[in-house]
Every structure is written in C-alpha cells, then in structure tokens.
Amino acid sequence: MLHAVEGRKVKGREAGERDHQDRWRVRGEVRTLRQVRLRTLLGSLVIVVVADLVDLIANLIFAPWQIVRSAIQTTLIAGPLAGYVIYTHARANLRLYEMKTYLALLSTTDPLTGLLNRRAFFDRARAVADSRQPHMLVLVDVDRFKTVNDRFGHPTGDAVIQRVSRLMKAHFHADAPLARIGGEEFSAMLLTGTLEEVRASADAFCAAVATEPFEAGGTGFQVTVSVGLASFAPGRTADDVYALADVQLYRAKQGGGNRVAWEGRTTAC
C-alpha cells in the first residue's frame, strides 16, 4: 500500500519537524570537521594565554629576569599539549554526533527505499491532523505484488518497490515527506488547496506506474497501483483519516486495481 498526503509547507508541520530534529540535539555538540578545527584553535589559544598570564605573574614575583624565556617555554609546551587534548576530545564528540545521527536515521528510515518508515509516517500524520490544515491522505497499494514475488523472486520485488518509490518522488511535491509503511505500502504527506489537485497528482502517479517498463530475466511485466484518498477534516484523527482512505483503497482494488478512488467515486488510471 502507498500513502500520500499532498502539498505546501505549513507552520504547524514545520514546527513538528523542528521538534523532531531538536530531540536529537545536544548543546555544544560538534557536528563538522570545521567545528573541530575551530574549537581546537580557539581552545588552544585560550589555554596558552591563560598559561602565559600565570607564568608571567609567577615570574614577576619570583624571577623577573627570565620572563621572556619562560613565556616562550610555556607557549611551546602548553600550545601543542592543549591542541592535542582539545582536538582528540572534539573528534570524539564529532564521531559521537555522527553515530547519533546515523541511529536517528535508522529509527525513522526504511532501509530499502530511503523513505520514512511506518513509525515516522504516523508521527507526521498525527502532526498533520493536529495542525487542522486542509490536508489530504492518499493511500496506494501495489496491485498483485505477491504475484511478482512468487513469479520473479524477492530481489525483483525489491526492485519494484524501489522503482515505485522513485516514481513517488518524481510525481509528488518536493516538500512532501515520503514513506514506506511496510511491504508494498508507501506514503507522502502533502498539503494541497483542493481535492482535484490531489486527485490529479494521484492520477498522474498511477498512470506513470502503469506505463513504467519492468523486466526480470528478460521477461517484461506490468506493475499497477490502487489509490485511495481521504481528507484531514476537522475533528478527524490521523487514524480516522487512515481508515477512511483505506476504505477507498479497498474500493479501488475491488474494481480491478489501477484506479484512484475517493468519496465513493473511482477513475481508471
């Protein structure tokens, strides 16, 4: 099944995405090699200045005749030592940030397609429902996907999933969060002005899948999708909208697939 909610960015969704990103942020963390170098340079400079000041005060009291020589020695010792310690610490922080970012990506991303996974999709869908903006949800299911797996094998099925995901990226809004819900299910969350605009995008996507050439072992085959639409109307939760779109999706599949269904109506792709 493939899911899509279509459209422009809104403040509520942007705030939700920022909250999701801020969840992984730590104050003062190092995120780039440039920050590593900058922190090393500034930290070393501060330590050398402090060390030279302490050395200067001590020499003014106890050995004023060796202020210059002592300052040079202190700088030559404190500079490299501070640089090494700060650089090592900053690089460790950078590696920690990279690992944390990677784990965050794994927790929200489908490994086969690079799209959002089911958990991330429903997090976004709930944020969309809470925003009370006029969104639409489009559910799409790859027709007879089990037949593809049984006839050509799971590697071919995986290739189909990847191709369908690329067609989603090509036909839905660039700002839409795309997701693979599981198996042959996907989603894209989009804000749109009218039902007709969403339906036009769904029709174009459905037709593009039907005309896309697929091949396995020298044998060509066709892949089609069924599409169901539902709106995020006031008072509806994300689960409500999902269930309504799923009913329309079922109607499209019952009609033979390769169709878009909405509000009790269907059109062939």
Question: What are the salient characteristics of this protein?
Answer:
single chain, 269 residues, alpha+beta, Alpha-Beta Plaits, 2 domains, 8-stranded mixed sheet, disordered N terminus
Total beta-strand segments: 10
CATH architecture of the largest domain: 2-Layer Sandwich
Calculate Rg over CA atoms: 29 Å
Number of helices: 8
Largest sheet: 8 strands, mixed
How many domain units? 2
Order of helices and strands: EHHHHEHHEEEHEEEHEE
CATH topology of the largest domain: Alpha-Beta Plaits
**Backbone shape:** elongated
Helix content: 55-70%
Q: How far apart lie the N and C ends?
A: 16 Å
Pick out the low-confidence regions: 1-21
Query: Mean of residue pLDDT?
Result: 85
Structural class: alpha+beta
CATH superfamily of the largest domain: Reverse transcriptase/Diguanylate cyclase domain
CATH secondary-structure class of the largest domain: Alpha Beta
Description:
The chain is α+β, with helices and mostly antiparallel strands. It folds into two domains: 2-21 and 112-268, Reverse transcriptase/Diguanylate cyclase domain (Alpha-Beta Plaits, 2-Layer Sandwich); 33-108. The chain contains eight helices and ten strands. Strands 1, 2, 3, 4, 5, 8, 9 and 10 form an eight-stranded mixed sheet that branches. Strand 9 (259-262) and strand 10 (265-268) form a beta hairpin. Helix 1 (11-22) crosses helix 4 (118-131) and helix 5 (145-152) packs across helix 6 (154-171). It is elongated, with a radius of gyration of 29 Å.
